[in-house]
Amino acid sequence: MESFVPVKQLSWSGGAGGAQQSLAGVLKPGPPRPGPPADHVVMRSPLRNQLLLSAGCPSRTNLVYLDSAETLTTFFIGAASLRQSIDATESDLSVTTIYSARKIITMNPARPYATHVAVRDGRILSAGALEEMQGWGDYMLDDRFADKVLMPGLVEGHSHTMEGSLWEYVYCGYFDRMDPDGKVWPGLKSVDEIIERLTQAAARLDEPTTPLAGWSLDAIYYGGRRINRNDLDRVSTERAIGILNASGHILNVNTKALQLAGLLKPGINHPGIPLDDEGLPTGEMKGPDAMAPLGIHTGFDRDLLACDEPGLRRFARLCVRTGVTTAADLANMLPDGAVDMMVRVTAEPDYPARIVSLRRFYGLTPAELIDRVLELEKRSQQNLRLGIIKVVLDGSIQGFSARLRWPGYYNGAAEGLWYVPPEHLQEIYERALAAGIQVHTHTNGDEATELALDCMETSLRKHPGPDHRFTLQHCQLADAAQYRRIKTVGMCVNLFPNHHFYWGDQHYSITVGPDRAERMNACATALRMGVPLAIHSDAPVTPLGPLFTAWCAVNRRTASGRVLGEHERISVKDALRTITIGAAYTLKLDAEIGSVETGKRADLAVLEDDPEAVGGENLKDVRVWGTVQGGRIFEAAAI
Amino acid sequence: MPLPITIIGGYLGAGKTTLVNHLLRHANGRRLAVMVNEFGALPIDEDLIEAEDDQIISLAGGCVCCSYGEDLVSSMAMLATLRPRPDMVLLEASGVSFPGAIAGTVGLVPTYKLDGVVVLADGETIRAQAADKYIGGTIRGQLAQADMVLLNKTDLIEDDDIVRRWLNGTSGEARIVRSMYARVPFDVVFGTIWRDGKHGVEVADRYHADGYETLAFVTAPGVRPDQAVTVCADATTGLLRAKGFVPRPEGGLAQIQVVGRRGEIADAPAGAEPGVVCIGLADQINRAALAVLADDRNSITERQAS
Lengths: 639, 306
Ligand SMILES: [Zn+2]
Description:
The structure holds 2 protein chains of 2 kinds.
Chain A: H1 5-11, H2 18-27, E1 40-43, H3 46-53, H4 60-73, H5 79-91, E2 97-105, E3 113-120, E4 123-128, E5 139-142, E6 149-152, E7 154-159, H6 162-166, E8 170-171, E9 177-178, E10 184-185, H7 191-203, E11 212-217, H8 229-233, E12 241-245, E13 250-253, H9 255-260, E14 284-286, H10 288-295, H11 309-321, E15 324-332, H12 336-346, E16 354-360, H13 366-377, E17 384-385, E18 388-392, H14 422-435, E19 438-443, H15 446-462, E20 471-474, H16 480-489, E21 492-495, H17 498-511, H18 513-519, H19 523-529, E22 533-535, H20 546-555, H21 572-586, E23 604-607, E24 624-629, E25 632-635
Parallel strand pairs in A: 2-5, 2-6, 7-15, 8-11, 11-12, 15-16, 16-17, 16-18, 18-19, 19-20, 20-21, 21-22
Antiparallel strand pairs in A: 1-5, 2-3, 3-4, 6-23, 9-10, 12-13, 13-14, 23-24, 24-25
Helix pairs in contact in A: 1-4, 3-4, 13-14, 14-15, 15-16, 17-18, 17-20, 20-21
Chain B: E1 3-9, H1 16-25, E2 32-36, E3 49-52, E4 56-59, E5 64-67, H2 72-80, E6 88-92, H3 99-106, E7 112-122, H4 126-130, H5 136-144, E8 148-152, H6 160-170, E9 175-178, H7 186-189, E10 212-217, H8 225-233, E11 239-247, E12 253-259, E13 262-267, E14 275-281, H9 287-291, E15 301-302
Parallel strand pairs in B: 1-6, 1-7, 2-5, 2-6, 7-8, 8-9
Antiparallel strand pairs in B: 3-4, 4-5, 10-14, 10-15, 11-12, 11-14, 12-13
The structure holds zinc ion (ZN).
């Protein structure tokens, strides 16, 4: 392709874009535009034009020279028409825009890196060098990302839009966390700091009796000291206060809340309600049943998991801030009303993310579930994908409700809970395979994973499902033998390395002990076995942020600094692949998203730093400028 | 008056659906509210369904059915506000849930009172299920939390004594009731054996033919309420349920209620008169044990169907 060299020189458009920038500086019309820099130049593509004009012409080289003058003329178009073209880029997606970048990590194995990406109709037309793109016709060169590093838009394979809903409430976590506005709320390192933040929030409420709700409290970080109602009474004795634990399984309340729920009385006998010396509830309500009577009094909406409209919008803004262009909303009940709302909101021209919402198995028989999901699938649209089933098979490891194989929990806790009988899982697998519907199964403990594998083997014998991509979600404790079976039955895994950071120390010393803590979320084993791998945050359980999740998979560092399972660390390259094309594969979207290559959606993560160059240690600190989603540009700072 | 609620548990196929329908057909004018985990596999025979809306299904005879899903507390609160108010509630636990955990939650809802935990077991398969690699622990846990185990499908097993002996070892103090097609008296599943009648003790014994027996007596002077509960709840006495009013040593009447191994004492309502009614399997009731409580042996009256 040497014939392209002259074009490159003549059109001044090769390399990192220095030429265009200076050129744009000359041509840029009028006063500076607000918002992103307008380093756009409309270019006439030489090759495309001459091919149209002179099809059948024997010599490409000749054609290039023939056309070069026309290329030059486009540099001298008037300021006014340039301005029009700039506006056209933002409104008319059918124009070809070529973005230059410091570096583009494509995840396309055939050409892993590029300097330019051409976008048309919201899709990737080409990713490579600018001179290679000339054949596609007219384009606008946009240098706003010239100093940025581009990646495929990041894919969060397991989160919940509820993360957006929870920001309605006061953040009470131990670790710093960014809200949808981009404000980073400092982690609260002492009970006093928690009380202080709640007191400030209470001061902003009008009525003295308005309930106050907070979230993401993690009681294990306060030196073994439990948060009780007396602590929260320091904030108010007049208004009910409830703080949801980070795990989502504990609600801490004040005395007023207990009074309102009629539970400030002796004689309560419930495993989820510890009592104080006087025989009254301490204010720690454990488990959904103990929490439920308090929820309505402390300001938590009843159906927090069913997404609400403001929450769905806030969630998308978090996506932009974390470079995410597609996020799975992993366990929605998807009643018609919620689906109507999601269809409407995600179709808005400025909704910046693609939401893949899974229907949780609940309230329907397996047969009805299949019918319902087939119905839902018909309502899929570009930025809302429906038609996948989620089954929650067991509980959580830190809540001691995950199903573990022998020898069970390290601290001797009783065996966990099944949330679905094996017969139902079996029936769902069989029916879903027959109907061609994908199933994602939550299995935290290795016994739950074992059951899912048993059901999968049986079901596949009856209904061979080529390319079924049934996915084990969390699958935190699977061992090598299980990974071999996972490979054999063709399942994918979406692992949860964020656990190492947030609860790794507890897993090591309390829940599963050293051996199994080190094999938790065995990313390296999965890759070694050739099991399709994604990694996730399970936001709001841990914060949305695939680059942070990648950091967790690369470093396996606990909060105290221990490396939890040196041999299961993966490389930065593998981690980056996993949070893009890897996660896309588990959602059956890898033909549409997950890499920057011809035909894919124009979904990009726009980064200030090069995740391949900063070193694995610093992966979590890579700065995100924003995203491009379906060709639309979303700057985090402006969202 | 708190609303009595009985929890029925047991794994898939144990006969919970059959029991629910049997009870609905024998509610006899009592407004029974059935709570199911999810509407998906609605366990109600179609001919009993009168009208459906999103929240409540109206059933024959003034009964209703609703699903509680993941919000048991709210659903229970909603049921208690229905007018006319249900007389009693039957909560069907999902196949993998622990009825004891649900019982704990019932205790958190002020308008309710736990009336018993009945766990159904499929006589044919229960032992295999209890040994199952995956669900064995769940099955054994459910049985251990029962006040009464309903050993169903006994027509399908040759020697149900073996199963019963095994159950005795597994389910601790729970009473074991054999049945076919879950045909169990309403008064066994619910503490409805006591009817407010003219003289405090009036029992309609419709069960004698089914192998059940109901007895009534007035406690002997000096028998304390806690003694009455202890005897009635003792496994060797062989009772399934007992309810009645026993004088307190300090004066006044206490209400006692026993379901299987569990008993409780509360204040008697105004106007109550002394007397205790109990029900059990005819071949299991130990009259001698009960006689300790009665003012004399002859006062234990066997109520025959009239
Ligand atoms: Zn989740």
